[in-house]
Every structure is written in structure tokens, then in C-alpha cells.
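Lab meeting, item 3. Inverse folding demo.
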């Protein structure tokens, strides 16, 4: 019995420490099917997602989804702390509980004493009401106290890193609101970047190329941060009609449209941004073990007739388009490179993918503020309606 307790304690501590090292310290994708973090998210996310997605009110549903990310981080830290306390308590129990405890009554209180001392030592309370009687257990107590200090230091350093990565991600998503709509769409992004010419190139083309360059860097940062800290994928954006996945897919849509159908000076930058964004999307799908959908099984975000409507709207805005018969097939070939992975992540995370065309009379998030809407948006909206 004591040997089993000793082995269980060592296994528990080794598992927690390795998992915490891979999750917090190691700057690359954690590996291992039986990691505590992986099992924790498998056990907690599935029921949370199943219950939340059945809620019909969109605002309530998104609120519950947004709670999961921060709450799961705190729950994971609690799980690690409990397992560390259990691991050291089992080691003390295997050593015969060599402590002087005034509240212990016979052998039945041994494990209770071990758990109590392990908890007070890990969190460095140092009450002194339970006293060790051997040198070996004193050394083990010092080791646990150091582990507790290290655990607290890792947590203090871990939380700012996670929230800094989240903030960097959300800044670009917020900026995309005025450039591509809410939720963002590829056609709206191109339409809003088609304006008066300056020299031989449209000034909108230059702005679009700069925007795509910024999103190439954003995708690289997303790949680095979200593979190192996959729990960031569960963090929702500030507004219900915005998300990192929708923004990423909208940019991929715009790049695919530029490469396949648009006669534009931004096509080369679109290829670079497409490659980086697709890399990030595919790798994140693999992190969560999501098998890509068949393209035919994905919801068609560009249904029959919408391709022609999109082309007509873009031509009316001054976007130079290819009009050959193979235009739709080229765009479909580009979509098949990323949409199956996007659909898999969408189904797993409960995040809606953006359409290619904006919804009629859709308002950007900045226009939903009452004072801003009253001062600027209302006259413009009324004019469009008439």
C-alpha cells in the first residue's frame, strides 16, 4: 500500500510539472495524448459547447462562450494546484506520516494530516501547528515550498503573456471593422478600398496592399501565440459580430478573390498573405485535432447567384475583375485550400464564418454606439434607405 502511494505521488507530481512546463514555459506546440491540459479541455469544452450552442438568444450564447476561455484558465490552475497537493500528500503518506499533529487520532487521520500539511506548505502558510519528525520529510517540505513559490511565479508571469497576446490579436480585428464591415466580408473589404486614382495606381490599391501586409504579420503572430497558448482560441472578441476566426477567413476570402478574379496591383501581396493565413488556419485546426471537412460538406457561403451579384457590386465600385468563364472555378479552387479547415474549426469552437456578401443594411460595430450613430450614422443611413 505504501509503495503504491509513493508511486502514485511521484507520477502525479511528474505529470503536473511536465504539463505545466509544456503549457507555460515551452514556446512550441505541446505534445502528448495524456497531458492534463489536453484532457481538461476535452472534458470541459465538449459539454460547455453542447449546452451553449442550443441557446437561441445570440447575445446570451456568445456571453456564455466568452466566459469559458478565462474561466477554463483559472480552473486549469486550480487543477494543477490540487494535483500537486495530492502528489506531495501521497509521498508523506508513503513515508508513514512522520508528523506531530495534535488533531490526529490514530491511523485514520494520517492522510488528512498529509493533505493539510501539503496544502499549507505549497501555499507557504507556515502555520507550524504540524511539525515534521525526520530529516527526510523536512527536506521534502522544503522542496514542496520551493515548488509552491515557483508555481506562483509561473502563474504571475503566465497571465500577462496570455492577455498581451489576446490584446494584440484584438487590435487588428477592431481595425478591420471599418475596413471590411461587421462581420467582415471579402467583397466589402475590396469595395471600401476602391477609391480615386493617384497617379497610375488607385490610392485604395496601395491601402489594400498595406492592409494585407499587416494581416500577413498578424497571421504570423497568431500562429506563434495561439500554438504556444491554444487556450487563446477559446477567448472571444469584444463584440458578438467579431471573432478572430471570422476575421482570418474574411482576409483569406479577400486574398483568394484578388488572386483568382481581380486585376489588381495587390495580387502579389495577396498571395503572400494567403499563404501565411492559411498556414495559421491549418496548424490551429491540427492543434485541436480537427479533421478538415469535405468541401462539398461545408456550408456554401457563396451560394448560386451570389458570385454574379458580388462581381456586379465590385464592378460598380470600380474594381477591375476578370470576366472569363473560368473565374468561378479559379475561386473555387482557392477556397478548397482553406475552407475545409475553417469549417472544422467553426464547428468545434462554435464561431460563425463570414459570408462573402455583407448583410443588407448591416452596420459596423462603431456605428452601433448611440451617440456616434445619432451624430453621424443616422443621416447617412436614411439617405441610403430613400
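The presenter then showed the designed sequence:
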Amino acid at each position: 500500500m505504501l509503495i503504491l502511494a509513493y508511486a502514485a505521488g511521484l507520477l502525479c507530481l511528474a505529470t503536473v510539472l511536465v504539463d505545466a512546463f509544456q503549457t507555460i514555459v515551452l514556446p512550441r506546440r505541446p505534445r502528448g495524448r495524456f497531458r492534463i491540459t489536453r484532457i481538461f479541455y476535452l472534458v470541459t469544452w465538449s459539454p460547455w459547447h453542447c449546452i451553449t450552442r442550443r441557446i437561441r438568444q445570440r447575445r446570451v450564447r456568445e456571453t456564455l462562450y466568452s466566459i469559458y476561455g478565462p474561466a477554463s484558465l483559472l480552473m486549469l490552475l486550480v487543477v494543477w494546484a490540487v494535483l500537486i497537493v495530492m502528489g506531495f500528500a501521497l509521498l508523506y503518506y508513503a513515508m508513514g506520516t512522520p508528523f506531530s499533529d495534535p488533531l490526529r487520532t490514530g491511523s485514520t487521520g494520517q492522510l488528512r494530516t498529509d493533505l493539510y500539511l501539503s496544502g499549507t506548505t505549497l501555499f507557504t502558510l507556515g502555520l507550524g501547528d504540524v511539525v515534521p519528525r525526520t530529516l527526510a520529510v523536512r527536506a521534502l517540505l522544503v522542496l514542496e515550498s520551493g515548488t509552491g513559490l515557483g508555481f506562483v511565479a509561473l502563474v504571475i508571469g503566465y497571465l500577462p503573456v496570455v492577455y498581451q497576446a489576446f490584446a494584440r490579436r484584438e487590435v487588428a480585428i477592431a481595425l478591420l471593422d471599418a475596413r471590411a464591415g461587421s462581420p467582415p466580408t471579402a467583397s466589402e473589404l475590396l469595395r471600401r478600398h476602391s477609391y480615386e486614382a493617384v497617379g497610375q495606381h488607385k490610392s485604395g490599391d496601395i491601402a489594400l496592399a498595406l492592409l494585407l501586409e499587416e494581416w500577413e504579420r498578424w497571421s504570423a503572430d497568431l500562429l506563434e501565440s495561439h500554438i504556444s497558448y491554444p487556450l487563446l482560441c477559446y477567448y472571444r472578441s469584444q463584440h458578438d459580430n467579431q471573432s478572430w476566426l471570422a476575421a482570418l477567413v474574411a482576409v483569406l476570402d479577400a486574398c483568394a478573390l484578388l488572386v483568382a478574379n481581380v486585376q489588381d496591383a495587390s495580387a502579389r501581396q495577396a498571395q503572400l498573405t494567403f499563404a501565411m493565413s492559411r498556414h495559421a488556419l491549418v496548424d490551429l485546426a491540427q492543434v485541436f485535432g480537427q479533421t478538415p471537412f469535405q468541401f462539398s460538406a461545408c456550408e456554401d457561403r457563396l451560394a448560386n447567384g451570389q458570385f454574379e451579384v458580388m462581381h456586379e457590386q465590385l464592378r460598380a465600385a470600380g474594381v477591375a475583375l476578370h470576366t472569363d468563364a473560368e473565374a468561378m472555378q479559379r475561386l473555387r479552387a482557392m477556397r478548397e485550400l482553406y475552407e475545409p479547415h475553417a469549417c472544422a474549426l467553426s464547428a468545434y469552437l462554435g464561431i460563425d464564418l463570414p459570408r462573402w456578401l455583407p448583410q443588407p443594411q448591416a452596420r459596423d460595430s462603431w456605428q452601433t454606439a448611440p451617440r456616434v450613430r445619432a451624430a453621424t450614422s443616422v443621416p447617412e443611413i436614411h439617405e441610403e434607405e430613400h
